[in-house]
Design a protein that fits this description.
mainly beta, 4-stranded antiparallel sheet, 3 helices, globular, disordered N terminus
Length: 399
């Protein structure tokens, strides 16, 4: 066997501990480098997020434009991701590119809609005609023999109808095809004057706000009915009654299946309960409220702020559905409407201007329009909106 020393090979004693230290140092430098890159990226993303979250936009880019030919009296609502538009002559459902999905003609003096998820009902207030529709079109029609005061639709098309005539009020429940399910009668002289009704999303619970002035002062009673198994064991299906002295409660609404909100002239009351709603929060109103608005998670109150003769100064208070104050925001603008858009943005508008605020109190967008402004829809994306203007519908991106 050849001698390996004659072929240029020789042995070297390696310092294994030193090599392991070098490897550990190298790995540490790699880890630190990766961590720095990740940290810089995270800080950059956070900084960009904060920049766009607090940025105020004063312009927009029109991405698409569609000519409108509907009448000035036409109203618009967001419905199942598309647009519902209605007037005295009918109601139609179009997608965001103005393609017709369905249309229903009618003649109504005072059409009003109520929406719950994928169902909508339109009624002729003080008239007698009601249509029930879903995203596919008309499912049922109801013709009452007494003037309609209020309607409320549930998420499977069940509808509650309040009618009044000659000192008596009538409450009826109908299924989506217009068949009568439940009916009842109250006499104003004995029970008071019904102001509003509210129906839970599953149509299992019904609430009625009743004004009583028989004793010389206003008192409102909120009555809850349950049409399920629990209510069958109660007299007239009544599972809860709450009375409020010196208070008028003209508006009540189930904001979710198990939560209802009541707006009074002296207080806002929140109720919760799967079977028997209970009073959870009472928010006292210290001064007159100019406007109310709400969605499933928040409600807003608008007050005049200061001397109205010196400007259009207003103050908004936003509360969550537990009654906790989330935002106080002042604004100086005359307005015709105020409400929540998607992502709980607050939209204030009149016929030629709008302001949009976030729940952090940031004025996200303000604009004065040349054409008359009818409605603003948000797409859910942070900078994309649809403007319904006189003669045109614009899909835009803020810039």
């Amino acid at each position: 066997m050849a001698d390996i020393r004659k072929q240029g090979f020789h042995t070297v004693e390696a310092n294994v501990e030193e090599m392991e230290q070098k490897i550990r140092r190298h790995r540490k430098r790699v880890v630190i480098g990766i961590a720095v890159v990740v940290l810089i990226s995270a800080v950059s993303v956070a900084a960009a997020g904060l920049y766009f979250e607090y940025k105020e936009y004063r312009g927009y880019e029109v991405r698409s434009e569609i000519e409108r030919n509907d009448s000035e009296s036409t109203k618009y609502e967001s419905f199942a991701g598309n647009i519902l538009r209605y007037n005295n002559d009918g109601i139609s459902y179009v997608d965001m590119s103005d393609n017709l999905i369905w249309n229903q003609a009618f003649e109504m003096q005072n059409p009003s809609v109520d929406i719950c998820e994928n169902f909508v009902a339109v009624a002729d207030m003080q008239g007698s005609q009601i249509y029930i529709m879903d995203t596919n079109g008309v499912q049922g029609e109801i013709s009452t023999n007494k003037p309609i005061k209020a309607i409320c639709v549930a998420n499977q098309g069940t509808i509650a109808v309040l009618t009044q005539e000659a000192g008596a009020s009538y409450i009826g429940l109908y299924n989506k095809t217009g068949e009568s399910l439940v009916s009842g009668e109250t006499h104003i002289a004995n029970s008071g004057y019904p102001l509003d009704i509210a129906l839970s999303n599953d149509a299992n619970k019904l609430a009625l706000s009743i004004l009583d002035i028989s004793e010389g002062q206003a008192k409102t009673t909120v009555v809850f009915y349950n049409f399920g198994a629990i209510g069958q064991n109660e007299i007239d299906n009544v599972v809860g009654t709450y009375s409020y002295d010196n208070t008028m409660i003209p508006e009540i609404s189930f904001v979710s299946n198990d939560r209802m909100i009541a707006f009074g002239d002296t207080q806002v009351i929140l109720y919760e309960g799967r079977q028997k709603p209970e009073e959870m929060t009472v928010h006292k109103l210290e001064k007159e409220v100019k406007s109310i608005f709400y969605d499933t998670d928040y409600f807003g109150l608008v007050y005049a702020n200061g001397d109205s003769e010196k400007g259009n100064r207003h103050k908004i208070e936003i509360y969550d559905m537990k009654g906790n104050l989330r935002l106080e925001q002042e604004f100086d603008m005359s307005y015709d409407s105020i409400g929540f858009l998607k992502n709980h943005e607050i939209c204030i508008q009149n016929d030629h201007a709008c302001q949009i605020y976030t729940l952090r109190g940031v004025k996200k967008f303000a604009c004065q329009f040349d054409a008359e402004l009818y409605k603003i829809f948000s797409s859910g994306a942070s900078k994309r909106y649809t403007f319904i203007l006189d003669g045109v519908m614009e899909r835009v991106k803020l810039k």
